[in-house]
Every structure is written in structure tokens, then in C-alpha cells.
Amino acid sequence: MGAFDPNRIAIPTGHFIGGRLVNDAIHTLDVARPSDGQAYAALPAASLDDVDRAVESAWRAFRTSDWTWSAPRDRARIMRRWADLIEADVDYLACLEALGSTRPIVEAAGWDVPFTAEGIRFYAELADKHGGEVAATRPDHLGLTLTEPYGVIGAIAPWNFPLVMASWKIAPALAAGNAVVLKPSELTPFSVLRLAELAIEAGLPPGIFNVIQGDGRTAGDGLCRHPRVAKVTFTGSTRTGAAIMATCAAHGTKPVTLELGGKSPQIVFADAADLDRTAATVARAITGNAGQVCVAGSRLIVEESVADRVVARIVEAFAALRPGATWDPATNLSPIISEAQCARIEGLVGHAVTVGARRVAGGARVDADLGGAFYQPTLLTGVDADSAIVTEEVFGPVLTVQTFRDEEEATALAAHPIYGLAAGLHTADLGRALRLVRQLEAGTVWVNRYGRTSDFVLPTGGYKQSGIGKDLGRQAYEANLRVKSLLIDIAGS
């Protein structure tokens, strides 16, 4: 897809409640484009009354529309139509996504929008392929387990992949028969409004899918506290996830699904089949979306005998990247989402160098004329295992390097005290791979690759403080259903 003029893209604004855009806010927030730092729209900041209005709309639609109790195939038909409309609207949706986020236009059009549509199709097709069970009971009893939707699901999505992450929350919840109130990030709030408009066009009953805008302190917290919200699903930082979990426990003891932070290792053995290809994979795993990815492979743990070769190839890959505006198709290094986040990256890297790390590549802002915040892909050696740059999630294009001599040392370095989201393992030895997969504490392990494909059947989610529950896969669908037991005495029937 070609370049576009960021000043000529129509921006849908407001909350989306009861099947239409609502923009009657008293308070607004300025929203800036990451590529140039320019404020380009005003975001209505939801009050608690706005949150209540959206949740009540969802509750009424759940109770009175035919969505929840219709045949699963009927729900699936509407969701497939919705996915078709999303794909047909790729030119506008991709521009809207690239405009206000860190997603370059080529990636938004080629991956984000199609991935969003295909994910909705996946859950549409799962809707009529899951049911209850007949239990093993006495011959004069009939025991059944039934699955039913929760009601209203509160979904809170992050800013790094606005459309994709929202669809991971919305699609399984809707396919299971729930209504949804989504709060996107206030940094990237607009593309999901177009998603909601297309849902109504596809035939989704008004009120089944609502969007509220605003910050986490009011809109997000209000959604978690609302007595009509039966379950909350969130993707974001571990700290915010812990706060959401505490709020949900205090206000209704409602279940949560949390996909949280990570500090994922990439382990490279000397016997990897193609070390140059492996180095390119390692580089992409930390520079994709400028490292602003929860599963970013931010810790390279490489066998000592090949470390210099692998590091040299990674530095070459870093140098080939071109930072630029997300509306420029030549851009392949994204901006950092905000000035505050870029300053945080600077601080962590600066501290690491102060305490002994060596900058092999990067380590500073990109000197760009655009006005946005860009950070050089950075590679640091000489880091201590307990240093902040190794233990803390940076959420930027910063890769640390540690070396090992044997499997035991490799797995010890890969272990993290609190995170366990993902890990990469590069080796030609199948036996070694199978041994280490069992030892790595991570919700996802990639072998001789790094990053997911469009196989929606594979769930994603972390161990330890990297989360609770799963997005994607059959598990995400089942997490949006309650189980009811039924026992019938048929002896006298």
C-alpha cells in the first residue's frame, strides 16, 4: 500500500454505545500521532456515567436481543460477514491504524487488518463446535454440563497493536454469545470505532459491542468495578494487571484474563542450522514494532563460541532499518509511542551503560526531523544478570547479550524471577530442543523461529507474572463461557 496524507484521513470520534457514535463529552484528551508528535484529534474522556451508559446498553442487548440465544451458526454468519467487511475496508482501516499508532502502513495493510478479520472468522467457526458433555452418572440419572455466556465482558486493549489486540478480546467473547464493552488505549483509540461501525453493518445487534474512550483511572477502573460486568480481560503491563485483578476481586469477585509483561529470552546454540538466518530472526524479534511487543525477544543468550558472529550479523540487520513516519511505505522501524516512553528507554539504557554495559549498536535517539520519538535499535553486551536492563521490560528496541557454554548455563540465564511469557530456542538438535522446551518457564516457546503465525488455534499467554489465562485458541473461547451442571432423575419418568 502506498503513502498517504495523514491530514486527509477522516477520524471517527466519540464513544460507540447502542450501535452509534456518541460524542457529548464534557472533558476531552488530546491524541498525538507518534510519527510526528502532532495532536490530531480530541478524545472524549468517559465519566463514570458514560461507563454506566455503555455497560447498561450491553446488558440490555444481552438480555433482549437475539444475539445471545440465537443458533451459534447465526452468530457465526454475522461474524463472517463482519470479517468480510473489515477486509473490504482495508484501505481506510489501515490508514486509520497507521495514522495514530506505531504500525507502519505496509504492515497495517498487509498484516494487522487481514489478521484481525481472520481472527474473527476463526471464532465464528468455533461457535457451533463446542458444547457441554453428558456426565457418567447412575443409569437412572441424566447428568449434563451446559455452557452459557457470562453476560457483559469488560475488555481493555493496549496501544501497541490496536486492532489486533482488540479483536483477540472481542471475537471469542461475541462468538460465545456475550456482549462486550471495550476500552481501547487513550493513545490509539480510533480504529476500533470503525471496527464497531462495520459490526453494525454486518448485522450485530446494537448494544452487543460498545466502545468507551478515556483513561485507565476513570474509564478502565469504572469498567472493572461495574456490577453488571461479569468478567474482565486485559492486555498490558504487569503492574496494571495486578491493579485490575485487585479491583475485580474487591468488586464482585469476577474472573479475569490477563496477558501481561515479558522479558523473553532467545537462546542460540552453535549448532543452529543457519546462524546468519538465526541472527536475522533474533534481530526482527526485537525491532518489530520498535520492540513495543509483549513477546519481544529482548534477551539474547548465545553460545560463547559463536557469539561474536551472531552479534555482528545482528548489528548489520539493525543498521539496515529505516525509521520514518508510519504513513511512509519505506518505513521499517516504527516510532516510539510517546515522548515519555522514549525517555524511559533512554533512562534504562543510560543507566546500564553507567554500571558497565557496552554499547555495540545504537543507544541513542534517532536524529529525525519528523518530530516524533524514534530510538535506535540497541545492542548491549557486558550486562549483569541482575541489572535492570536485563530484568525490567524495556518495551523498546533494546537487546541485551549474555553468553553460555552448556545447556545448564543457558537455561539458568533464560530463567526470569517474575516473567514467563515467551522464549525462543535455536538449535539443530531435536533432542536438546525437546529437553529445553520442558525446562523453560514460558507460556509459548518457539523453536528455530520467533513469533506467531496466523494459526489462531495456538493460545498465547504467560507463566508467573506474565499473566493468567489465554488469548487465542480454543482456550480463549472457553474462557468466555460459564459451566452449569444439570442432573435429572429419570427413574420415574
Descriptors:
globular; 2 domains; 38% helix; 7-stranded mixed beta sheet; Aldehyde Dehydrogenase, Chain A, domain 2; alpha/beta; Aldehyde Dehydrogenase, Chain A, domain 1; 493 residues; 6-stranded mixed beta sheet
Distance between the termini: 67 Å
Poorly predicted regions:
none
The residue-averaged pLDDT reads 96
Shape: globular
Structural class of the helix and strand makeup?
alpha/beta
Strand order of the largest sheet: 14-15-16-13-12-18-19
Percent of residues in helices comes to: 25-40%
Q: Which percent band covers the strand fraction?
A: 15-25%
CATH topology of the largest domain: Aldehyde Dehydrogenase, Chain A, domain 1
Question: Number of helical segments?
Answer: 15
Main beta-sheet strand count, sense and barrel state: 7 strands, mixed
**CATH class label of the largest domain:** Alpha Beta
CATH architecture of the largest domain: 3-Layer(aba) Sandwich
Quaternary organisation of the protein chains? single chain
* Number of distinct beta strands: 22
Count of spatially separate domains: 2
Could you give me the name of the CATH homologous superfamily of the largest domain?
Answer: Aldehyde Dehydrogenase, Chain A, domain 1
Radius of gyration: 23 Å
